[in-house]
Amino acid sequence: MAKTATMMTINDTAQWLKSRDKFLIITHRRPDGDTIGCAGALCHGLRNMGKTAYILRNPEVTDKYLPYVKDYWASERYSPEHTITVDTASQDLFTEEAKAYLDKISLSIDHHPSNTLYADYTCLDENTAACAEIVCGILKKLPCGIDKTSAEQLYVAIATDTGCFSFANTTADSLRIAAELIEAGAPHAELNRTLFNARTIGRVKIEGLVNEGLEFYFNNAVSIATITRDMIALTGAVEDDMDGIAAIPGTIENVVVWITIRELSSPVDCKVSVRTSPGVNAHDICKRFGGGGHPMAAGFARRASVDKIKQELIAVLKDFV
Predict the structure, then answer these.
(1) For residue 73, is it left (φ>0), alpha (ψ between -120 and 50) or beta?
(2) Whole-model pTM?
(3) Is 105 exposed, middle or buried (0-12, 13-18, 19+ CB in 10 A)?
(4) What is the pLDDT of residues 163-172, one digit of tens each?
């Protein structure tokens, strides 16, 4: 149930952080570059101000993103006075470790319009492409500012949430902020290669199977990709190889809705990613299944088989395409 949350601006949030101490920062399940980069940059900045700050250990962080948070992990003995979530729209996205803090979230910093206002205080701007844009604004209002380390962390966050600035959510502000981060020392060329261009053999193989299995509906306006556990086992792909894979079915000409259905722990435990072109609302599609997100990038989880989910999606998509 949503709390009576106090909404705060970037200025309010900076003052809130300045007047408090002993922070614990929480990232979401299956963490992406945005939640990781935000957590690392915020924790680093708070420490530079002389604050005590840690990040709650997230066992789902992959090798690609681990370097940005591993030096900030909290010990099991750490007792925070204030807990902060970053890029986390709802408590459904909490890891098992984070569930101990379900009723103790002091501050939520987020950019998802679907945020359920579960924290005591919320700093929310749904017009930003990445939560990191908000964190960047907050750090600039604090004595710590942004140094080379936090610039790199924030660049990772913004670049991954915008598909290296190729997604439709990219704004002029996104590009301006990225330029500021580069000026502050973010090694953008190295990061772009690592995050977007360098591919493992497992990634190349899984991409081949995804492309081979693409299905098209509604006169090719909708493409659906499937990633099964068998496909992952066959190719030797690891979790890092799944990063950004939801964009693949959207590379087809004239497609306006592209969907990736991925089996997780079993053939009836699936994660669904929905991406759309302007004019079709991905959040509204996913809301039909209890999920949500952004107008052009959203998702949901479903306890059903891939075939069953496809049937349900096709029935719903008739209202959108």
Answers:
(1) beta
(2) 0.89
(3) buried
(4) 999 998 999 9
